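Q: what sequence does this backbone want?
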């Protein structure tokens, strides 16, 4: 069976049993792993799920979210991968999607096919733009409900005039709330519904739960009184939950307390268990008893104050601050494991994906060693080295030929790079005798699936589709090719390159005297290396000893040494600069270096280089591979040693790494950073 698909010039062949173990790849339509029935072309490594291939899609549509122009169906992104966003759900573009080139407006296929209608009689006091009512939504939306700040589910309202990075989506229940209510907590005056700031203060606190809030609130301006939607809609006098054997009773009084579950202060209306003598926040009642996070290989369990504690106070393994075990906390039930975390840290949405353990969970199961994750490598031949058996020949899922192990020596090409991590080849490595394919031994032994603290979901190993494919790493922000780990939970599209994936939660870096710890809440500080601002959604390595020292992942993963063509010694990453101002120059580009910015330096030869000059602008891209979308022809990544041509954009010499057009009579060569400006 063959089909002619709009995304390919040649037919695609039906594949009855596509196994990830034999040919791991992603569907080009939805960018999820391909298994089972599919259509594809083995020659160009292009594959589609059967459902994606047979989906009937119009080449152009007129969509109500973008009435100005028609939207055109595209098989691949015109942006650098990771640079585009769906203007409905807020998630990164990937796979097939509809696009308006004039307005840079994009919709995922699933988002474009949603049935919507204009919401009639929506009060302008809540939102100034018209809203669309979405009835049949079944895809995950990246932004929360603007009213209750909870994940979008079921029917909801959407504003097409509010686009990335701020989306307005409202649950049906939140959008249809009464504009005025009477509440027993403020009997003197009615409460008025106020939408997001600036109609109410940026950080107003709920009268009952004292949570800092930025969603919809009910307010009395005369009494300076605010009430969250959650407390208005869901504050019953008695709550019964499966995780606690006794009912919780609401104390409708202004009372100061410390929550026995999360250990934080409260001063209004706690819930009380008379039998256990516990006072807790309403939100803490529904805390899960057992769940798993990617930061730890065992399930963690909730412990609270009246239970017997057998460990001393210790450090939370997420925020690295002290845990007071006289209050609730999460710990690992395995007898030899001392993992512990604050309740608020462990249940943070950046850490935990919301999945809880099913009923019947047995804590004793954590004593059993977990099996390793499935590998995607088959051993063809083994040799014995001492007491160890080592795979001397393997068949890897990402290459058609067998690979042989090399312990010493060099490749024929000194610029050879691993097709996994794209770093220069070093022993031991596997190579193909029939083509230029190399893998470091560590890259070849990467597991198919792997958890990592950078992300709350389990990550799956993937490979670039072809020499044109490239992505942005969500951890360090660099463009990369080769192997990566990606998330396919609900269209998450989180991707991370191999270099970042192999970094651990803790880091001892020569730039700082203390150990650095991976944290998710950056408190909007700046990186101590590049001085760029760190945003709350970025992960960071930070010193927890009040040093005010932080490293973003890009700076933390910089190699400690680099090569320079005019220096016989390796250059060392240097983090402090005591040179005279007249000496602050790069020996490659001959431009000034900014004081206190990191650089590479050889003390023997007195050579100093900018970071980009030493590493190149595309250190994780393989030489010879191509980039699309920056020039009328594909551009090839090259490395100049001698006779460097001038950049066509800035007219300066292209020392080291650059991109060039191989088409006859084009003669376009440019620095990568100039090329990016050029396309804009």
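A:
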């Amino acid at each position: 069976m063959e089909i002619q698909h709009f995304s390919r010039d040649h037919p695609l062949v039906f594949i009855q049993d596509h196994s990830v173990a034999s040919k791991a790849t992603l569907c080009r339509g939805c960018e999820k792993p391909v298994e089972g029935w599919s259509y594809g072309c083995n020659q160009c490594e292009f594959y589609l799920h059967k459902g994606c291939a047979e989906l009937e899609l119009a080449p152009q549509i007129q969509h109500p979210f973008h009435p100005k122009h028609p939207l055109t169906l595209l098989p691949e992104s015109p942006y650098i991968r990771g640079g585009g966003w769906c203007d409905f759900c807020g998630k990164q573009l990937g796979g097939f999607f509809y696009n308006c080139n004039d307005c840079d407006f994009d919709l995922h296929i699933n988002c474009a096919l949603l049935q919507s209608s204009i919401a009639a009689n929506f009060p302008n006091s809540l939102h100034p733009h018209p809203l669309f009512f979405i009835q049949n939504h079944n895809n995950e939306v990246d932004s929360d409900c603007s009213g209750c700040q909870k994940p979008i589910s079921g029917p909801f309202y959407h504003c097409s005039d509010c686009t990335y990075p701020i989306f307005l989506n409202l649950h049906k229940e939140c959008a249809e709330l009464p504009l005025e209510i009477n509440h027993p907590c403020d009997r003197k005056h009615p409460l008025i519904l106020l939408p997001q700031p600036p109609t109410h203060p940026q950080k107003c606190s709920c009268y009952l739960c004292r949570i800092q809030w930025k969603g919809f609130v009910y307010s009395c301006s005369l009494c300076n009184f605010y009430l969250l939607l959650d407390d208005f809609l869901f504050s019953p006098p008695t709550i019964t939950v499966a995780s606690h054997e006794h009912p919780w009773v609401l104390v409708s009084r202004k009372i100061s307390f410390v929550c026995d579950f999360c250990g934080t202060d409260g001063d209004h209306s706690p819930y009380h268990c008379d039998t256990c003598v516990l006072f807790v926040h309403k939100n803490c009642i529904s805390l899960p008893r057992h769940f798993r996070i990617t930061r730890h290989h065992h399930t963690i369990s909730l412990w609270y104050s009246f239970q017997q504690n057998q460990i001393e106070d210790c450090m939370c393994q997420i925020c690295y601050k002290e845990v007071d075990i006289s209050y609730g906390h999460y710990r690992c039930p395995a007898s030899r494991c001392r993992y512990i975390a604050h309740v608020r840290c462990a249940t943070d949405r950046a850490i935990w994906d919301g999945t809880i353990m099913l009923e019947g969970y047995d804590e004793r199961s954590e004593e059993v060693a977990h099996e390793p994750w499935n590998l995607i490598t088959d051993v063809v031949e083994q040799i014995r080295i001492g007491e160890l058996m080592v795979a001397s020949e393997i068949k890897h899922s990402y290459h058609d030929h067998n690979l042989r192990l090399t312990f010493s020596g060099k490749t024929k090409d000194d610029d050879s790079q691993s097709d996994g991590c794209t770093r220069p080849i070093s022993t031991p490595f596997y190579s193909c005798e029939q083509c230029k394919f190399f893998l470091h031994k560590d890259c070849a032994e990467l597991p198919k699936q792997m958890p990592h603290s950078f992300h709350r979901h389990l990550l799956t190993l993937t490979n670039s589709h072809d020499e044109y494919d490239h992505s942005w790493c969500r951890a360090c922000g660099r463009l990369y090719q080769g192997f990566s780990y990606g998330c396919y939970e609900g269209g998450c599209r989180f991707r991370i390159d191999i270099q970042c994936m192999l970094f651990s939660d803790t880091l001892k870096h020569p730039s700082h005297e203390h150990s650095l710890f991976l944290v998710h809440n950056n408190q909007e500080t700046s990186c101590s290396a590049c001085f760029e601002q760190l945003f709350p959604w970025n992960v960071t390595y930070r010193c927890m000893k009040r040093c005010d020292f932080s490293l973003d992942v890009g700076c933390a993963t910089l190699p400690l040494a680099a090569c320079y063509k005019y220096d016989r010694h390796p250059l060392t990453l240097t983090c402090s600069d005591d040179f005279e101002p007249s000496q602050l120059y790069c020996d490659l580009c001959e431009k000034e270096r900014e004081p206190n910015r990191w650089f590479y330096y050889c003390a023997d030869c007195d050579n100093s280089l900018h970071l980009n000059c030493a590493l190149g602008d595309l250190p994780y891209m393989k030489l010879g591979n191509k980039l699309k979308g920056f020039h009328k022809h594909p551009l090839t990544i090259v490395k100049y040693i001698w006779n460097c041509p001038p950049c066509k954009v800035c007219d300066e010499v292209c020392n080291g790494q650059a991109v060039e057009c191989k088409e006859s009579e084009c003669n376009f060569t440019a620095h990568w950073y100039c090329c990016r400006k050029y396309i804009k």
